[in-house]
Each structure stands twice: as structure tokens, then as C-alpha cells.
TrEMBL record:
The chain crosses the membrane at residues 30-49, 103-123, 189-208, 229-249, 269-288, 370-391. Signal peptide: none annotated. GO terms for cellular component: ATP-binding cassette (ABC) transporter complex. This is General L-amino acid transport system permease protein. One of its GO terms (molecular function) is transmembrane transporter activity. It is a multi-pass membrane protein. It comes from Muricoccus pecuniae.
């Protein structure tokens, strides 16, 4: 009996039920409800669009995105690309998007590093370190972000004037005008070296992946660091030398009432970056702490039984397993940091929200301006989510 039941020839798929045009058939009910819901959504959207068009026509308000090609006349203090008030609104909004990305990308990196360190410190056996980390987390998370941004901006505005600027290191000046740092006199050779470094990162990743695959096949360890040094250091140096080997450094110098030369980090950007980093790091610290605690104690004991040092156990055994718990909620914090950057308007940093608000006030294109802001944040958020979901799938446990 058991043999005949296990024989695949005796296994039959159940017959499919025929679709009956009756309300008693749950499939018919499901189709009807879906059609009604989709129809209701389409009707509401159509009504909103028609109502908006009618109101705009009555008030004689122009619509469309033709204003993007008009001269902006909008001064922007910080811009990563060339910009003047004579540029178009499209270029001004592009500058705003780049300023938002500059805050979001650097803030995510710094918040991840700081939050990971604080999360590990909360689990430290050192009583003082653990308590200080706990106080940091509780205070930072309980104070509204806007108040923290205003706090940091007030401190930076209270710094001395450029003539009495703080000079902690040679060539570095901190004043109420921002932070001045030495910077390379950028030439074509630097651009080629930067491209070579990016290519070296990809080459190092591909080489390490190939060596790990071969090690899984024959069990022979192969060192990666010689090739990594060649790709990450040797290749950029060669590109830098072929590009003319430029070595000029632009040093900041006090001229008149302000510094000239070098790289400037404005007080607005500095305050926004510090506020977003410290605030988000408090939440990331708790995520990291929870992820480490989610790894069973047996993993620690097994690794220590092999003679591994505590730091090695944390890096090589615990954290790789904790990432499966850390990555999903970490994605939400990255999205929160990006969206919280819109508070930059409160301290005068010109991001996409600030520039778009000025644009819609000057042109009267309120709907288009709000739509641009929504599209920018939607695109950035979806990009972060896609990347983190891809990374999460790479580190997920695979059933065998």
C-alpha cells in the first residue's frame, strides 16, 4: 500500500474547478471586488485631475514644466557643478539634487560607522563605556532632530570671526564662516587617478571573488592583498603619473575679512551633517546591538573554544551572522536620514526642498514644484531600497 502511494505514476493533480458565474464562487467575488476597487481608484484620480485643471483655468494659472528653461536669477552658495544666477531653473534644481545627495551619501556612511561603534560599545564589559553609550542613545533619540540641527548651527555661528579663527592644525581654520581645508589644485591627472581608483575597486572585488571560488574548489588559500595593493594604489599612481603627475595644493589664506583658497565646508552643511549623523547613529546603534544579541551565545563559546580573540570573534563570526538581522531595519534608517535632510531649509542649507520652494514662489508653479520634490525623494528612496534589498539577498541564508 505504501509502495503504491509513493509511486509517482499514481500521483494525480486534482481536477480544476470550473468558473461559475455565481456570487457563491469565491473567485468571482474576488474578481468583482478587484474591479470595483481599481475603478474607484481610477475615478478618484480622474476627479482630482479634472478638479485641479478646472481650478487652475479659473484662476488663470499656467501649468507645465516650460519654466525649467527660464533664467532662475537664484543665488546658490554651494554647488558641485558650475552655476550662476543666469542659469536656468533646471540647472538650479539639479544643484539642489546634488546638494541633497552630498548630505545623504556622506551622512549614511558616517552614521553607519558611528552607530556601529556605539552599538558595540553598549555591549562592552567596561561599565563606564557601556553607560556613556547608553546615555548617548537615550538623549539623542529623545531630542527632536530639528532642535539638534538648530543647536549645532547656533554653536557654529558662535565661533570666532575669520581673523580670530581656530587653527588646530596647519592649514585648517574653523570660524563662523565654516571650515577651511587645504585642497588639491584639481587637474586632469587627478581625474584620471580617481577613475583608476574606482576601476581598481571593481578589479579588487572581482579578483577576491575569483580567489574565494578557487579556494572552495581546491582548499588552497591564496593571498589577496598583493593584488589589492596593485589595483588600489599602483593603478591610480600610474594614471596620476601618466596624467602629468600634478602635485599642486591650494592652501587657505586670510585675505581681507575671509579666507581664500582651499576647500570650504559651510556652517549650514556642517551643522546639517553633524545633526543627521549623530541623530541617525543613535537608532543604528540600537539596531546593531539587537543584531549582535540575536546571535546565539553558542557561537561566541564555539569561537572562543577555538582560541580566537574576542575582537576576531566579533568581526569574523558574530557580525556576519548579525547582518541578516541588522540590514532590513538599517534600510529604514537610511531612508529616514535621506528624508530628514529636507529639514535643511530650517538652517539655510540649499537642498532640493529649499531651491524648489524658492522656484515655486518665483514662478507660481506650485504643483510642478511639489511634484519635482516628491519625484526626487521617491527616486532616491527606491534606489536605496533596491540596493539594500540586493545586499540583503546576498547575505541571506540559503537552504540546502
Amino acid at each position: 500500500m505504501s509502495q503504491s502511494a509513493a509511486d509517482p505514476r499514481h500521483l494525480r493533480t486534482p481536477p480544476k474547478r470550473q468558473l461559475r458565474l455565481s456570487w457563491a464562487d469565491e473567485r468571482i467575488r474576488a474578481i468583482v471586488w478587484q474591479v470595483l476597487i481599481v475603478g474607484a481608484v481610477v475615478g478618484i484620480v480622474w476627479w482630482l485631475v479634472r478638479n485641479t485643471q478646472h481650478n487652475l483655468e479659473v484662476r488663470r494659472i499656467a501649468t507645465g514644466f516650460g519654466f525649467l528653461q527660464r533664467e532662475a536669477g537664484l543665488p546658490i552658495g554651494e554647488h558641485l557643478i558650475e552655476y550662476t544666477p543666469a542659469s536656468t531653473y533646471l540647472r538650479a534644481l539639479t544643484v539642489g539634487v546634488l546638494n541633497t545627495l552630498k548630505v545623504a551619501v556622506i551622512g549614511i556612511v558616517l552614521a553607519t560607522v558611528l552607530g556601529t561603534v556605539i552599538g558595540i560599545a553598549r555591549l562592552s564589559k567596561n561599565w563606564l563605556l557601556a553607560k556613556v553609550s547608553a546615555v548617548y542613545v537615550e538623549v539623542i533619540r529623545d531630542v527632536p532632530l530639528l532642535l539638534q540641527l538648530l543647536f549645532w548651527y547656533t554653536i557654529l555661528q558662535g565661533l570666532p570671526a575669520p581673523r580670530q579663527a581656530l587653527n588646530p592644525v596647519a592649514g585648517v581654520f574653523l570660524s563662523n564662516r565654516g571650515l577651511r581645508l587645504p585642497f588639491l589644485d584639481w587637474e586632469a591627472g587627478h581625474s584620471w587617478a580617481l577613475l583608476a581608483f574606482v576601476a581598481g575597486c571593481f578589479a579588487t572585488w572581482f579578483y577576491a571573488r575569483t580567489m574565494r571560488r578557487r579556494r572552495m574548489q581546491d582548499g588552497q588559500p591564496r593571498p589577496i592583498w598583493p593584488a589589492a595593493l596593485g589595483f588600489l594604489i599602483g593603478l591610480p599612481v600610474v594614471a596620476w603619473w601618466l596624467g602629468g603627475a600634478p602635485t599642486g595644493v591650494e592652501w587657505p589664506a586670510l585675505r581681507g575679512f575671509n579666507f581664500q583658497g582651499g576647500m570650504t565646508i559651510s556652517p549650514e552643511y556642517f551643522a546639517l551633517l553633524i545633526g543627521l549623523t549623530t541623530y541617525t547613529a543613535g537608532f543604528i546603534a540600537e539596531i546593531v546591538r539587537a543584531g549582535i544579541l540575536a546571535v546565539s551565545q553558542g557561537q561566541w563559546e564555539a569561537a572562543q573554544a577555538l582560541g580566537l580573540r574576542p575582537g576576531t570573534v566579533l568581526r569574523q563570526v558574530v557580525l556576519p551572522q548579525a547582518l541578516r538581522v541588522i540590514v532590513p531595519p538599517m534600510t529604514s534608517q537610511y531612508l529616514n536620514l535621506t528624508k530628514n535632510s529636507s529639514l535643511a531649509v530650517a538652517i539655510g542649507y540649499q537642498d532640493i526642498v529649499s531651491i524648489a520652494n524658492t522656484t515655486l514662489n518665483q514662478t507660481g508653479q506650485a504643483i510642478e514644484g511639489i511634484a519635482i520634490i516628491m519625484l526626487v525623494y521617491l527616486t532616491i528612496s527606491l534606489s536605496i531600497s533596491l540596493f539594500m534589498n540586493w545586499y540583503n539577498s546576498r547575505i541571506a541564508l540559503v537552504e540546502r
